[in-house]
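ugh ok so i messed up the first submission bc i forgot one of the chains. this is the corrected input, ALL of the components this time, i swear. 581 residues overall. if the numbers dont match what u have on ur side tell me asap before i send this to the collaborators (the ones from the other lab, u know who)
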Amino acid sequence: MLLSDGDLQALWLTLRLAATVTLILLLVGTPIAWWLARSRSRWKGVIGAVVALPLVLPPSVLGFYLLLAMGPKGMIGQLTRALGLGPLPFTFWGLVLASVFYSLPFMVQPLQNAFEAIGERFLEVAATLRATPLNAFFTVVLPLARPGFLTAAVLTFAHTVGEFGVVLMIGGNIPGVTRVASVQIYDHVEAMEYPEAHRMAAVMLIFSFLVLLALYVRRPKTTQG
Amino acid sequence: MDRINAHFQHQWPGFSLEVALELPGRGVTAIFGQSGSGKTTLLRCIAGLERAESGRLTFKGEVWQDERTFLPVHQRPLGYVFQEASLFPHLTVLGNLRYGLTRSKNTPEFSLEQAVELLGIGHLLERKPERLSGGERQRVAIARALAVCPRLLLMDEPLAALDLARKQEILPYLERLHDEMELPVLYVTHSPDEVARLADHLVIMENGRVLGYGPLAETLSRLDLPLRIGQERETVLEGTVAERDARWHLARVDFPGGSIWTRDRAIPLGRRVRVRVPSGGVSLCLTRPEETSILNILPGQVEEIGDDEHPGLSLVRVRLGSAAVLARVTKRSQAALALKPGQAVWVQIKSAAVME
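and heres the new structure output, hopefully the right one now
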């Protein structure tokens, strides 16, 4: 066996985390991206900047603030306690929440670009053909933005797989709960287990390359006329 | 009750729209003006795609917009044809046609098959829009707008994005639409040629204001309105083909107020046609001309005299029964003949072209 049980556990956890975050962000990111693409509000710039913040912020900074917010005195912490959910830090769902923030721009920005490229006209056409705005969104915008959704989902997934700093701050290093692949590699290196680190690193490298390959090979076909 | 009442007022940066119109609830009403005259904005306000600050719009007695009401676009019983066909690229032609049909609550007086037949697109139904020519796309767009069984059809320069050959391809379909359907149509255009061929009524716009509106022939012959068809002012006579002269290849068109000979264009007897009469091809005589090459000599009465663009030219509106034509004469001839309103004259029409 090339990979140890601990390695496989970390990989499985990573996939679960990335899939959960991607699903949540598809639901949360779509309305945000739609609003950013359509709105003429003066808040558009502010919201756009906030969404983009995780792109430039050091993950440890984001993780630090989220840790405080999830703590017993933080807003999120008090909310989860009031709901009877218990504290989030050092749990899987704590990681999920942190990753949602961390990967938000990777979902929102490709979607926003896709929505903006569709433009106003098709929505106007749909309205003159008796479609309500919501109906037009599902029957016109969603099919036309499909390449954008694919790009956004793949980037979000891959970005969540690769996160490290935020995980350490929020989740720590609990096997099967918060020890994701990147942390596992870090552990191997710390313990001077270079062959093990090599194998895990190779898995991650190959995965990342395949994801990007799939995205770039598809790209020429996805342009809309 | 059978009319469309539209009152709109709106300020945009650098442009204001101020319109009060009462439009007929049948036939084709052309909204004519240069680009920037506000004609498309007016159409978008009527569709509800644009919301004027202050507006009141009733369609055959139904309120679509007033101080309290604003009916959203998808609840207005209209069809809209945009300048670009804007077909949904992810659907086939049939999918595009069905899109509105399945959502329309009106009883399908005008079914999908009829729309397909009228626009001649039966052989294209399975195709994706990317595999259609520009003219075919616009025909599908028109059929798509018709398939929702609209009670009002709005067309925003449907031919403007097409080259001349494509325009010629689509115009006959628009003329069929005009002839075969009761549907009222508001047709935005900056093309005088399309006005002459399609319109029953005419609204002339400039800088967001309505300069004048009314029945086509009457509005075209008004001297205070700046509508040029091509190089010169033109009028349109509506009549029926009453006789075809095989020997001389001529056709006689009878209109209320007389008849006129034109080159025969193989149009069957009894067909309603329009005859374009350019003002430069109309001359006036005080006595009935004899031994002239001109075939059409009609008695008429001078109604009004105005200036043409050149300082040496006048435009004279002459009444022919219930119709009227414009004659372009020099100021010198006007003085020599001492033309004045009310005067009886003989009208010589040299050039007149039948449009089917």
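quick check: Chain A touches chain B at residues 121-122, 124-133, 135, 139-140, 143-144, 224-225 (CB under 8 Å). that seems consistent at least. The mean pLDDT of chain A is 90.
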